[in-house]
């Protein structure tokens, strides 16, 4: 059995709802299906030996068909999430109401040229770097000078829709949930 975390794009609180997400994943034959928060984080296990892109496609097709959500599915093994959390890539920085620590996960790794990122894509965002092991861009969003949706719109213009962003708090909650399970 392999454990995964599906990071879903296009999920908003209450839509389609965690019950429907769990039902969709269980209907695909996945086990130990759990949702975390209401922002599209689904933890599950599977005995399938299908490669990740095949699993992502199956999940996305089911979500589109059963919920109308066509936003995108990015999988990370729970081991990858655990290793990311243990690396503590933000060091001593802390997440709070005024300063969000964010990770933007890419479906495919960035090529070396794309990793040359501007230090400040927007005045309220400081890019810390690209974590190749987790295929994620790390940034700090100063909520007192701008808003996270502006940064997310910039990310989509630059990288397309095959991305999804989570806060560091969400990643640590996924990791903590894994430690309990």
What keywords describe this structure?
alpha+beta; 2 domains; Alpha-Beta Plaits; 181 residues
Structure notes:
It is a single chain. This protein has 181 residues and is α+β, with helices and mostly antiparallel strands. It has two domains: 2-79, Alpha-Beta Plaits, CATH 3.30.70; 81-180. The chain contains five helices and eight strands, in the order βαββαβαβββαβα. The strands form two sheets. It has a four-stranded antiparallel beta sheet, sandwiched between helices. A four-stranded antiparallel beta sheet has the order 6-7-5-8. A hairpin with a 4-residue loop joins strand 2 and strand 3. Helix 1 crosses helix 2 (52-67). The protein is globular. The relative contact order is 0.19.
Mean pLDDT: 89
Tell me, briefly, the overall form: globular
The count of domains is 2
Portion in helices: 25-40%
Q: Count the helices. How many?
A: 5
Compute the separation of the termini in Å: 14 Å
Rg over CA atoms, rounded to whole Å, is 16 Å
Give, in order, the helices and strands.
EHEEHEHEEEHEH
What are the low-pLDDT stretches, counting only 5+ consecutive residues below 50? none
Number of strands: 8
Numbering strands along the chain, what is their spatial order in the largest sheet? 2-3-1-4
Strand content: 25-35%
Biggest β-sheet description:
4 strands, antiparallel
Structural class: alpha+beta
């Amino acid at each position: 059995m392999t454990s995964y975390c599906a990071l879903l794009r296009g999920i908003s609180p209450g839509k389609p709802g965690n019950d429907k997400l769990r039902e969709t994943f269980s209907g695909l034959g996945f086990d130990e299906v759990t949702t975390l928060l209401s922002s599209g984080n689904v933890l599950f296990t599977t005995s399938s030996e299908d490669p990740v892109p095949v699993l992502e496609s199956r999940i996305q097709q089911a979500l589109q068909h059963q919920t109308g959500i066509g936003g995108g599915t990015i999988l990370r093994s729970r081991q990858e999430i655990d290793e990311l959390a243990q690396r503590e890539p933000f060091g001593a920085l802390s997440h709070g109401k005024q300063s969000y620590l964010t990770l933007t996960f890419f479906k495919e790794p960035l090529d070396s040229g794309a990793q040359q990122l501007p230090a400040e894509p927007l005045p309220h965002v400081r890019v810390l770097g690209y974590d190749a092991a987790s295929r994620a861009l790390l940034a700090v969003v100063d909520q007192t000078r701008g808003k996270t949706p502006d940064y997310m719109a910039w990310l989509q213009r630059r990288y397309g829709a095959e991305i999804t962003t989570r806060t560091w708090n969400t990643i640590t909650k996924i990791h903590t949930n894994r430690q309990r399970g």
